[in-house]
Specification:
single chain; about 300 residues; 12-stranded mixed β-sheet; globular
Length: about 300
C-alpha cells in the first residue's frame, strides 16, 4: 500500500520513478479505510532531500500512510524556497488540535549550539510536550534524538575529537525487539555527527532501553520501555551519495574533512560508494510503523494520547 502525500509534492515524481507506490490526496479520498497519520517535523536545511529520503522508507507499508510536514514558525529556513514551504508545510498552530499516530523529528546541523540557545528551542519543546497527548509514537532522529534525550531525561551529549562520518557496524543489543526484527546480528549504517551520548547514561534511566550499539559510533538506537519514544542516532535513510556530498561540500569550504570511514571503495573519493545499509534502513522504519504505530495505535484517532 502507498504513502499519501499532497498533490504535486516534488518527491512524488522521484519516488514513482523508483516504483514506489505514492497516492495523491485526490485518489486517497475515494478509499474507505483508516490510514495512519504521520507528522514529520523537518528541521534539516535541505528539506526536499530529507522529505524524499524519509518518504522512501515510510512507503513500504501494508497500510495507507498520510504524511504531513511541519516547519518551525520561530525560524525561517534559508535553504528551502518559501513557495515550497508555503505549499507543503504547516506550522504548529495549524496542527496542534490534531492527533497523529506517529511523529518524526529530524536532525539539524546544530551540534555546536546549546539547546536552550537554538532559535526555535521553545517551540520545539512545545511540540515535544504536545506529542505526549497528541501522538502515539515519536521517532527522534540524529540531533533530534540528542535534543529529545536532553529534554526528557537531562542526558547531556559529548563531543568527538573529530566528526564521526562514515559507515559503521552496529551490534544488536536486544534481539527480541520487534523494532529490529529481520536485522542481522551486526548491521551497517551511516553516521554523520559531532556529538554522542554515553551508554551508561542511557542505562541509568529506568524508562530507557538500549537496542543497538557501535564500538566506534556508540549509542545508536534506544527507546522508552513503553515504546512511545525512539531515539536513533544513525542515518539509515541516507542515499548512496549523501556522505559524498557532505564530504565534497566541506572540502570546497576548505575545512579539510576526513574521508568518510568505510564508505568509498579503498578510500578513493573518485569511486562510487556501495550501499550496505539500505535493507536495515527499510526494516527500521517499516518495523516502527508496523509494530509501534499501526499495531498499537487506537482505531479512534481522538483516543490517541489519552491516559488509560
Amino acid at each position: 500500500m502507498p504513502i499519501k502525500i499532497q498533490d504535486s509534492l516534488p518527491a512524488q515524481s522521484i519516488l514513482e520513478k523508483e516504483n514506489i507506490f505514492v497516492m495523491t490526496e485526490y485518489r486517497a479520498m475515494h478509499q474507505d479505510i483508516r490510514p495512519l497519520n504521520v507528522l514529520i517535523l523537518n528541521l534539516m536545511p535541505t528539506k526536499e532531500v530529507t522529505e524524499t529520503q524519509l518518504l522512501r522508507k515510510l512507503s513500504n507499508s501494508p497500510l495507507q500512510v498520510n504524511v504531513d510536514f511541519l516547519q518551525t514558525a520561530t525560524y525561517q529556513s534559508k535553504h528551502t524556497d518559501v513557495s515550497h514551504l508555503d505549499t507543503f508545510y504547516m506550522t504548529f498552530d495549524e496542527v496542534k488540535d490534531r492527533k497523529y499516530d506517529g511523529l518524526i523529528i529530524t536532525g539539524a546541523p546544530l551540534a555546536y549550539v546549546k539547546y536552550e540557545e537554538v532559535a526555535y528551542w521553545k517551540e520545539l519543546c512545545s511540540i515535544i510536550d504536545w506529542a505526549e497527548t497528541h501522538v502515539h509514537s515519536t521517532f527522534y532522529l540524529c540531533w533530534g534524538a540528542f535534543a529529545g534525550l536532553h529534554y526528557h531525561y537531562g542526558i547531556d551529549h559529548f563531543y568527538y575529537d573529530e566528526k564521526l562520518s562514515g559507515i559503521y557496524s552496529h551490534k544488536i543489543i536486544k534481539s527480541t525487539s520487534p523494532l529490529l526484527r529481520g536485522f542481522d546480528d551486526v548491521f551497517y549504517a551511516p553516521q554523520s555527527r559531532e556529538i554522542g551520548v554515553r551508554k551508561k547514561d542511557i542505562e541509568a534511566v529506568p524508562e530507557l532501553e538500549l537496542l543497538a550499539y557501535s564500538d566506534i559510533a556508540g549509542v545508536t538506537i534506544a527507546k522508552t520501555v513503553d515504546s512511545r519514544k525512539f531515539f536513533v542516532t544513525c542515518h539509515t535513510e541516507y542515499d548512496a551519495d549523501t556522505l559524498a556530498k557532505e564530504y565534497f561540500r566541506d572540502l570546497e569550504k576548505g575545512l579539510n574533512p576526513k574521508i568518510p570511514a568505510n564508505y568509498f571503495p579503498d578510500d578513493d573519493p573518485s569511486r562510487e560508494p556501495i550501499v550496505n545499509w539500505r535493507s536495515a534502513g527499510q526494516l527500521l522504519y517499516t518495523n516502527w510503523l508496523n509494530y509501534y504505530v499501526y499495531q498499537s495505535t487506537p482505531y479512534d484517532v481522538e483516543a490517541i494520547g489519552n491516559k488509560k
